[in-house]
Structure formats: structure tokens, C-alpha cells
From TrEMBL:
It comes from Methanofollis fontis. It holds the Pfam family ABC_tran. The keyword Transport applies. Residues 5-233 form the ABC transporter domain. Gene3D superfamilies: P-loop containing nucleotide triphosphate hydrolases (3.40.50.300). GO terms for molecular function: ATP binding; ATP hydrolysis activity. This is ABC transporter ATP-binding protein.
Length: 241
């Protein structure tokens, strides 16, 4: 299998806080990779480093064969990103925002893609409403649409399901599962371990900036355990589940 994402000793230090302390991991093409960890364990920092939003203190990250620190723009032009707690521009409508994304990313069939997302996530009735007047869930739907409009081979998503109701969670899970079946790769961070167990093929557990464990979700289930129980015992024992 081909590694589509590769982090080597990735480290980020803020003053006297080590947000990420030398993480090495690799993600294969076609994986639905779940990055798990308690609050403040370094998940968002990891996603920011992998998408060139911040520079590492040391270590390297290669995404789709490109070194992220030396070519962040190249990496961002290829991948789809949904940052944590991000909202679309308040002064644009969903339609205007998606057209803007379409023109920046030079997407030929943007109208078609846009119509698909309005229909799939059921927010076409809000297409002309300014984003500042949208509910949190609808803004998250729009962030989903912008991330996948160019059909990226790799998408990095920070907490994808937190603002969605159960119906939309099902729909998004179905989309993500189908998307990786087509050979694409998803890297997501989440606190919702039941959903990670349901949809992820691979996982990594971060704790206080350190990688405690990485492996196949099927391996944990095959031992008769739930990912949530495994996660809790790992974090409580500092890595000895
Ligand atoms: N810009 C920053 N300046 C200083 N410290 C930071 C900064 N960004 C993150 N940190 C610190 O780095 C650590 C990891 O934060 P990060 O946001 O990556 O965690 P997380 O796992 O995503 O947490 P959560 O699940 O709560 O969103 C925390 O201690 C956080 O306070």
C-alpha cells in the first residue's frame, strides 16, 4: 500500500507547552484514519501541521509526496480541509461561497457539485441566506461541501460530526465510507469513539502530545474490545491498554 501521509518526529512547541512531542505515523491510501485523544492532546495541532497552517518546531510531514513545510500551498491546493470550529465567511451566502471556492480551485463543474451537496445535506433552501444567519449545523454542512467540492484524494477533517443531528451524522458517515471505497483517503480527528469504531479503518491515540498507540480498528474489535474502552484504558495507564 502507498503511504499518502507521513509524519516523522513531528514536534510543535509553544513556549513551555509541547503541543506535539515527536509524533511518527503514516497513513495508507484508502484509509479512513481516526486521530483520537482527550482535550488538549494535540489533535488540532497535528492537523494544522499536516496542512501547513503552522510550521513544525522540528520533524517533517509529507502529504501526497510533498513536504508540507516547504510547499504548504501545493499541499492545500490538493487536499480538502475542514478546520475545527471554522465558519464560512459571514458576508457571503452558501452559493456565493461555493462559487468562490470553485473559482479559486478552478473546478469546472461547480454548479453540479454545489447542487449535489445542497441536495445531499438538505440545505438548498439556505443557498441565498448570508452565512452569518445560518445555524451552526448548516455552516458545518457548508464547510463539508467546500472541502469536498474538488473531490480531493485526501481530506483532513477536525471533528467532522460534532454539530450534526443524528440524521445528518448518518448521512455524513455514509458519505465518508463511500468516499474511501472509491480509493480516496480521510484523516479525521474525533472525540466520538462510537462513530470512530463504526467508520474508521485505522486509528491513532494521542495523549499529551505523545502517540500512545496506532493500529487497525478491526484488530481492537477482533480482541473483543470496543475502541472506546481501549482508548480509556490506554489514556488512564499512559499507554498500557
Ligand atoms: N497557538 C497556541 N499557543 C499556545 N498553546 C497552544 C496553541 N495551540 C495549541 N496550544 C496548546 O497545545 C496543546 C494541544 O492543543 P490542541 O488544540 O492541538 O489539542 P486538541 O487535541 O485538538 O484538543 P481539543 O480536543 O480540546 O480540541 C494544548 O495544551 C493547547 O493549549
Amino acid at each position: 500500500m502507498t503511504a499518502i501521509l507521513d509524519a516523522r518526529n513531528l514536534t510543535k512547541v509553544y513556549g513551555d507547552t509541547t503541543a506535539l512531542g515527536g509524533v511518527t505515523l503514516s497513513v495508507e491510501q484508502g484509509a479512513l484514519f481516526g486521530l483520537l485523544g482527550p482535550n488538549g492532546s494535540g489533535k488540532t495541532t497535528m492537523i494544522k501541521l499536516l496542512t501547513g497552517q503552522i510550521r513544525p518546531s522540528s520533524g517533517t510531514a509529507t502529504v501526497l509526496g510533498r513536504d508540507v513545510a516547504s510547499d504548504p500551498v501545493g499541499v492545500r491546493s490538493l487536499v480538502g480541509i475542514i478546520p475545527e470550529q471554522e465558519t464560512p465567511p459571514s458576508f457571503l451566502t452558501p452559493e456565493e461561497y461555493l462559487r468562490l471556492v470553485g473559482s479559486i480551485r478552478r473546478i469546472p463543474d461547480v454548479e453540479e457539485g454545489m447542487a449535489w451537496w445542497f441536495d445531499y445535506l438538505e440545505f438548498g433552501d439556505k443557498r441565498h441566506v448570508l452565512c452569518k444567519d445560518l445555524s451552526r449545523g448548516t455552516r458545518q454542512k457548508l464547510m463539508f461541501a467546500q472541502a469536498f467540492l474538488h473531490r480531493p484524494v485526501l481530506a483532513l477533517i477536525d471533528e467532522p460530526l460534532i454539530n450534526f443531528d443524528p440524521i445528518m451524522q448518518e448521512r455524513v458517515k455514509e458519505f465518508l465510507a463511500g468516499y474511501v471505497k472509491e480509493g480516496n483517503t480521510i484523516f479525521l480527528s474525533t472525540h466520538i469513539l462510537e462513530i470512530a469504531e463504526e467508520i474508521c479503518s485505522d486509528f491513532a491515540v494521542l495523549h499529551r502530545g505523545e502517540l500512545l498507540s496506532t493500529g487497525k480498528v478491526a484488530g481492537v474489535i477482533g480482541e473483543g474490545r470496543h475502541l472506546g474502552d481501549y482508548f480509556l484504558s490506554l489514556v488512564r495507564t499512559g499507554g498500557h491498554a
